[in-house]
Amino acid sequence: MRWKLLPLRLLSCVIACVAGTALANTQITVTDKDGKPLANAVIFLESPAAKAAAKPLSGVEVTQIAKQFSPQIAVVTPNTSVLFPNKDTVRHHVYSFSPAKKFELKLYAGVPAAPVVFDRPGVAVLGCNIHDNMVAWVLIVETPYFGVTDGKGRLNLDAPAGNYQLKAWHSTVLPGVPLSEQPVKIGPGNDTFSVKVAGSTA
After folding, report:
1. Which of 93, 138, 146, 192 makes an SS bond possible with 44, Cβ 3.0 to 4.6 Å?
2. CA 84 to chain centre
3. Which one of 110, 140, 170 terminates a domain?
4. Residue span of the structural domain in which 37 resides
5. 16 within some domain
6. pLDDT-based confidence at 199, cuts 50/70/90?
7. What confidence tier does 18 reach under pLDDT thresholds 50, 70, 90?
8. How many structural domains is the chain composed of?
9. CB-based contact 129:95 (threshold 8 Å)
10. Is residue 202 part of a domain?
11. What is the mean pLDDT of residues 141-160?
12. pLDDT(8) > 70
């Protein structure tokens, strides 16, 4: 099964059903420091149980097309292998100097011979040594319960009931700035939470 072909909510359902765990639906609204809805924010729920449930994903790709990365934001669990196929007619030199993952895929076309394994939690900023306008991010999170907000800064996230740290990240937050986080208790029904991403702008 190729996880990347499944919507995030369906992916969470599959994981929980395999584990035999009932899911609760959590509605999360994310705003920037000025209180405006924040699109493309990554939300994830951490706990000891969530960490134990996090397994490497399969079939994850970050493609280069039209001299851009697609998707621009990828969220994976530790030890996930990511392929970087180049679908452009020009060669790219993909790299990351981030502490979470340092690597270089020197000038190439097509599909690299081996994927890149993201083996530790954190944020890896991607670039191209040839095209300075190309940028993307890979977030490595120790939980299977994550998602990305829509254009209105909203996300519906399915996770088992329990106590978590709700964490939020956005690409406008400078490297080294602590993630916005807050403790949350998810019940067996529907819960609603809001989080403000400090230092971010819509």
Report:
1. 146
2. 16
3. 140
4. 3-54+148-195
5. yes
6. low
7. very low
8. 2
9. yes
10. no
11. 95
12. no
State the average pLDDT over residues 8-28: 60
Task: Kindly give the residue spans of alpha helices, DSSP state H, lying in 54-197.
Answer: none
Q: What is the CATH number of the domain that holds 71?
A: 2.60.40.420
Q: pTM of the prediction?
A: 0.84
Of the pLDDT bands very low, low, confident and very high (cuts 50, 70, 90), residue 98 is very high
Rg (CA), the chain: 17
- Residues with Cβ < 8 Å from 158, sequence gap 6 or more? 9, 12, 13, 16, 23, 24, 25, 26, 145
pLDDT at 3 over 60: no
| Position 200 in a domain | no
Tell me how far apart the alpha carbons of residues 198 and 169 are, in angstroms, rounded to a whole number.
9
Do 13 and 32 sit in the same domain of this protein? yes
Question: Do 15 and 79 reside in the same domain of the chain?
Answer: no
The CA distance from 153 to 161, in Å, is: 23
User: Does the pLDDT value for residue 182 go beyond 80?
Assistant: yes
Q: What is the identity of the amino acid at 168?
A: A
CATH of the domain at 20: 2.60.40.10
